[in-house]
Design the sequence.
C-alpha cells in the first residue's frame, strides 16, 4: 500500500514541538507517518523517549506501522485524536511533552476514488475517514432540507445552501444519489451561472461541509483540545495544522482562552481573582507555508500552524 501524503509545514512543526530525546510525544493524526517519522528520529528510547502515533483510518494505521517499524521509540495505535487522554490512560502515560495534529485530508484519501472524498473522481459517496459509520451517502439521502442547509451553511460557508439543498431533495425523490459525480452535477444545477464561473470548483464547499459532518471534525477538534491540554507537562507544546477557516477559528479561540490571566476590572489596584494564564502562544500569528513549499505542494496553500506552550503553573 502506498499512502501518499506530503507532510505540510514539516520543519516548522518539528521545530515547534521543541523535541527532547527523552520526551513523550503524541501525533494524533499519523497519516503517512511523515511528521511521526521525524519525531521518532529525534527520540532516544533508552532514555525514555516515546512517540504515540494515532489514526482512525485503517489504511493509515497499516502504512504508519510499516514506516515507523525502524524506530523503537514509536508505537502506532488505532483511534481518534479526540480519545488521546483515554489512549494515554490505556498505555499508562500520565503527561506528555508534546501533541500535534495535522487536520488535512491526506493525498491518498483524496486521490483514491473509492473513498469518495473528491469531486474530481467518480465513485460511491463515502467520505468516512474511519471507513465505518455515517457516510456521505447517508447525509445526502436522509438528512432533512433544514439539516442540509445547516451543514452547508455552517461547515461549508456556502451562500447558496438553500438552493443546493432543495435541488438534492428534489433529485432524491426520483432515486437515491449514489455517486460523487451525481452530487457534483446537482450542485452545478443549483448554482447560478455567475457562481459556477467563480474561483475554485463549484462543489468544493459542499463536499467540505459533508465531509466535516460525516467525520464530526469540528466537534472532535474541540473535544480533543479541551481534554488533551491537561495531559501536557509544564513546557509541553500543542501544535495544530489547520486547512480552513472553521478549524483555524476554533484553534485560535481555544488556544487564546488558555492564555487569559487576571479578569479583574481594570480599575482594581491589585488582582483579587487570582487567575493566571495556563499557557502562552509560541507565535502570536499562525505560521504559514513558504512560497517554495506551496510551489512544491499546492495543497499546502491554505495551511496554518498554531503552537501553544503550557506554563509551569
Sequence:
Amino acid at each position: 500500500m502506498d499512502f501518499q501524503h506530503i507532510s505540510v509545514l514539516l520543519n516548522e512543526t518539528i521545530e515547534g514541538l521543541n523535541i527532547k530525546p527523552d520526551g513523550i510525544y503524541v501525533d494524533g493524526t499519523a497519516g503517512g507517518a511523515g511528521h511521526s517519522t521525524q519525531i521518532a528520529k529525534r527520540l532516544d528510547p533508552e532514555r525514555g523517549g516515546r512517540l504515540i502515533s494515532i489514526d482512525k483510518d485503517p489504511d493509515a494505521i497499516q502504512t504508519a506501522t510499516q514506516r515507523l517499524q525502524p524506530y523503537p521509540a514509536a508505537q502506532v495505535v488505532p483511534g481518534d485524536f479526540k480519545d488521546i487522554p483515554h489512549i494515554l490512560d490505556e498505555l499508562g502515560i500520565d503527561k506528555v511533552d508534546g501533541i500535534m495534529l495535522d487536520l488535512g485530508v491526506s493525498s491518498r484519501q483524496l486521490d483514491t476514488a473509492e473513498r469518495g472524498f473528491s469531486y474530481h473522481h467518480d465513485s460511491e459517496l463515502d467520505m468516512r475517514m474511519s471507513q465505518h459509520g455515517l457516510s456521505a451517502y447517508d447525509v445526502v439521502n436522509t438528512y432533512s432540507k433544514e439539516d442540509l442547509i445547516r451543514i452547508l451553511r455552517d461547515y461549508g460557508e456556502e451562500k447558496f445552501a438553500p438552493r443546493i439543498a432543495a435541488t438534492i431533495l428534489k433529485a432524491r425523490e426520483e432515486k437515491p444519489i449514489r455517486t460523487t459525480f451525481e452530487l457534483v452535477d446537482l450542485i452545478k444545477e443549483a448554482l447560478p451561472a455567475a457562481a459556477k464561473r467563480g474561483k475554485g470548483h463549484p462543489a468544493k464547499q459542499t463536499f467540505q461541509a459533508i465531509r466535516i459532518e460525516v467525520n464530526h471534525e469540528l466537534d472532535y477538534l474541540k473535544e480533543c483540545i479541551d481534554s488533551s491540554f491537561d495531559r501536557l507537562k509544564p513546557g509541553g507544546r500543542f501544535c495544530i495544522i489547520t486547512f480552513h477557516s472553521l478549524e483555524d477559528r476554533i484553534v485560535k479561540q481555544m488556544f487564546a482562552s488558555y492564555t487569559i490571566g487576571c479578569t479583574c476590572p481594570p480599575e482594581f489596584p491589585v488582582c483579587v481573582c487570582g487567575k493566571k494564564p495556563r499557557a502562552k502562544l509560541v507565535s502570536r500569528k499562525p505560521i504559514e507555508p513558504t512560497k517554495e513549499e506551496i510551489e512544491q505542494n499546492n495543497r499546502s496553500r491554505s495551511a496554518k500552524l498554531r503552537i501553544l506552550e503550557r506554563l509551569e503553573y
About this structure: Strands lie at 24-27, 50-55, 74-78, 96-102, 232-242, 279-281, 304-310. The chain has 14 helices and seven strands. The mean pLDDT is 94. Residues 22 and 48 are 5 Å apart (CA to CA).
